[in-house]
Sequence to fold (840 residues):
Amino acid sequence: MRVRERDTIHFKPRKRIEIQRITEKKHPRSPERTPDQLRLSRRTFSFMGLAAASFVALTGRLWQIQVRDHDTAKQQVVVYSQRIFTVAPARGLIYDRDKQLLADNVKSWAVAIVPASLPDDPDEKIAAAKQNAIFTALAQHLSMPDIVVVVPDLLPKDDPTKNEIYTRLAAAIGVPVDDVRTPVEHELATAAEKKRDPQSKIKVPINLLGKELAPDKVAAARALAPQVEGVAVVNPIAYLAEVYGTFDPYVPLIVKQGVSKEVALGIEANRLYLPGVQIDDTALKRRYLVGEELGHVMGYTGPISQEQYNAAIQRDERGQPILDEEGDPIPIYLPQDYVGQGGVEAGLEEMLRGQRGHYVAKIDAVGKIVGEYDQYRKNAVDGQNVILTIPLDYQIQVRDILKDGIARVRPYLEDQNKQAIAEAHPERVRPIPPPAGAAVAINPQNGEVLALVSLPSYDPRYFADGISQQQFDIYSEKNIPDKDKTYPLLDRCVGSAFPPGSTLKTFMASAALQEGVVTPDSKTKCLGWIEVPTIYNEYARTNYYCWTRDAQHQDLTVREALATSCDVFFYNVGGPKQKDANNIDTHYYLPSGGDPQWFTGLGIDRINTYLQAFGFGARTNIELPADNKGLVPGIAWKAQNYEGNDQFWSLGDTLNTSIGQGYDLATPLQLCLATSSIANRGTLYKPTLVHQLVDDQGNVLRQPTATVVRKLPIDPAHLDVVRDGMQMNITWHRDNLVKGLVAPEFDPQGNPVPGTEQFRLPQGVTAGVKTGTAEYGTEVDDRGLLLRAHAWCAAFAPFDNPEICVVAFVQGGSASSTIAAPIASGMISAWFDRKASGKA
Fold:
């Protein structure tokens, strides 16, 4: 073969060096690998590369999860459930008329249990023992005594035996038997209606006024329990867990609020030994910045009662109850809620309580809240802030004026009693009543309450943290005889009704003028009394006396009769023209003899029609829970409440009613409202304690307008005549003093008695006044006069354009002009002094 020259490459010759591989130095050269071996080697290499890559990727992912996204991954792992929790609203604040804070909220400590987190065990007895140990320890820490309960399903079925148990239990714990019977029978009726499982064993706590029973009463019930069926004494926390813990065992169930910081921290330090117990330092507790001066007005908040819990249910726009899946009404409250108990706290509960919110929580495997789902949160709506119509400084002034007036009763009666004994009339010695009374002031142009004082009173601050047994015994007047009790928890302004006495005459005069029974100028003769024949004997007569018992009044117009409070005049106003048992028109005789005088008055039916128009016999609907409707009795009422001959309404009943000495009963608030309708010439307003609703910045959200109950069915011209008579109640006596026709009277301290000198008022202020001395009880003296009497005075000012109407009431005060009138004039003077200072 030939090689072309151009294809030949020439190199410089070099010496060849033999190179030996390192591997060949140690091992002999491997034989040549086959093709199959070569393919296996490549596959192994690929697998090894893939494994290495996977390892690198896994390592990176682990770093991402464990380092970079550690927190997120942790939450994703531990969150396994969600649960709805409620958010409590803040209760609305309360201010006085001058925006002085009266009640607010402060953070406090609360102790709760989570039923689902309590110790558990497959053996029910062991689980119960563990839980009871926690309940016992917690109750000791919180000073919560055992409570008495009745298990309705365990009671005997026959009524006699069941009633015997009620009676024995009531006697043991010292409460009325109805306090035991009523709630238990209600539960039995509810269980029957809903066909509840008899194994449910619902327990009914038997407590007095929502308060724990005294230790000795609990001990008595514990001794009784083994002897009767269905009665038990249980740990209060165990009771709460059993009855309310089943609603949602994961929701904290508050067992006590307002716990001291020391107690709460002590429980927290022992949480390891108290599983299922939680401490909440975000709870809000009611705080009161006033005491007894506004006790009955304010009221207080306390644990919700079973009755309150059952009564408050959710309703739709039409007012119909909203039902759950089982057809039961959905309650507004939770079992552990605190609600208003008395006063405006209860009366304005719907305004003050706010609306509950909720949130959905993220729960980890151990039941701990680790977050929430923000999109499902519904914020709570706080309660509305209320500005009351009452100025605190004026309320305190009225309280002091009333207290001074009540204090004058004892020396006055002691002086009267000394005089009776000196005149050899020991039967005229009057009992000295316990010190008690009420005072009300209202704006007659709109019904706003300016003062509402009931004495004695109570301090709501004692109830804020749970009242002690010692203080409750003081307020309940334990071991004090009934005749000496003053009942400080009773609101005499609106919660109690009393015979109104001669203050009723202003309304009788208004009705008589409207019905034409009298005219402004017609006159009636009073010689000290009238003689009314009995039913079957014209010559057997009953004397109906004027308070003077002499002939000083003579002929009186309606104005003069009001000024002098003449009883005989108003006997004629009330006594009806009707046939008696002998088919003769009703009539009477004057003490001087002569022909019979015929009654042509209103009669009880027309009297009651007008009294009801003035608001008597009906609740005032003020924003207070204890709103007594009083009593306007008549023929049907007496037939229902009396037996035998006493059940028939007699002419004498009508005559007594005509002067306020019959069966009629009125509250001081009712009397003040009725007098206000005369003062303003014919409009009866609904009373109110709410001046404004404001937000947290003090901006006015709503200013309620005056609510007219009704326009009186009386011509304003007739009301002007009555008003004139009320003004003459002052000027008549003053003018006759100047003329020397009457002598001034003095109280035991030597002060002139208002009404015989002058109703003391600030310079330039005029007023209309009506006093009343209402006899009550059964004890009489040798003249047939009752020895006990309440003192009343109703007044308004200024006369021409009234801006305040007041009522003063002293229980057992005996003398209206001596005791009650100075209180009323003092209340009016204090208001106008306040106005002069620029506050009103």
